[in-house]
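re: that chain from earlier
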Amino acid sequence: MKRKHVFLAILLVLALVLSMVAGCGETATPTPTKAVAPTAAAAATPTKAAEATKPPAATTPAAAATPSASSQPFTGPGVKTGVTDKSILIGGTYPLSGPLAGFATIAKGVETYLKYYNTEKGGVYGRQITFKYLDDGYQPANTIKQTRQLVEDEKVFIMFNGFGTAPQLAVREYLNENKVPQLFVNSGQSNWSTEYQKYPWSMGWQPNYQDEAAIYGKYILETKPNAKIGILYQNDDYGKDYIIGLEKALGDKAKTMIVAKQPFEVTAADVNSQLANLKAAGADTLVWAASSKFVAQGLKEIYNLGWKPLNIVNVPAAQKNIMEQAGLDAAEGVISAAYIKDPTDKTFDSDSGMVFFRDMMKKYFPGGAKDDDLISLANFQGFTLGWNLVKVLEQAGKDLTREALMNAAVNMNYTDSPFTLPGIIIKTTPTQRAPISQLQLMKFEKGDFKRFGPVYGAHN
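^ sequence. v structure.
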């Protein structure tokens, strides 16, 4: 009987053990639940352990954090046109001829940086980058023709840094319909950032003209509140954008402060008659929305007329060599703004970014760099654009597609550019597509531009 009780006790213990094992098995396999996506803050904040093992940012592509769907608006089949395991073909259009041909050297600056990166860094993820650009003469009809050739015949991966507001607006719809990135357009027209929902595949790069003009408006209100303002503007979207920005900044005072507006055509021989009209209207402050040719010629004409307004010259024409063409006396006191370093500014002679630019220009500039090429702001801008293109290509990753590139382009946050002015960053989000939106004022004095005041813009 005693043995029977012991045997029953043993059976009871075994039953309890088996039930505990079964219970443990259930808790190890919980009922599946929907996965919760990490918040943007969580995704962007690495652990201390991850920080300790992360290589220096300057030597590696952007960190491969898992992005949220909202930060990756470009989805699709993953188009790789123009991309092979060994190459990337980029297209562009510039005025290699015509009245604005002086800007064509921007393309050579881009080409110089890409040649450096191909030769000394082996390209992006082993892919050599080829930049093929064609002449459109700043004629929208030619831009359409050349863009179609590059997209349909040459099969480029993207269109990059196409020059000019009117020419690039002429191909914007075509490129968006075909989902071809129109990246870093060389135009500060505000539409590149404000109309992203309608034209998601298009993006500018430099500060937009309206924001630039607004800074000038604020400066006038602070330093010359009773100014009588005349506006000389190129008669297209480029020039008209400056008027919009200036009038917004002046607010209700615009009606009384702006005494005259004078348009001119880009094909005009000069702007002498427009300047005479502005002088006759009593303007004592002249805001320029023009290209380099007309600024150089116009400042000289103003000086010859004995007229001494405050001249505020827009960024694209505010270069030391343009002031020298006008004459140092004629250009004395010109106000403008900047966002990248100026190769003519001697304070940057020992700057590491400037030294690197000049060294690479001597090695890789197409046709060989002359002394003037080493101090060309247009070349320097192109070189900076080349740097930015490589950064985005790296951030897009090894599996390079048009969609991946655009997702990278709308998620830039580059504080490490060796070529922008101190304090100026390159930043975008899916809903903020103006890569550079900061500027610093400068004044031309005794043969040089001198920067002054704070950095203005969206990211201060």
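Confidence is low (pLDDT under 50) at residues 1-66.
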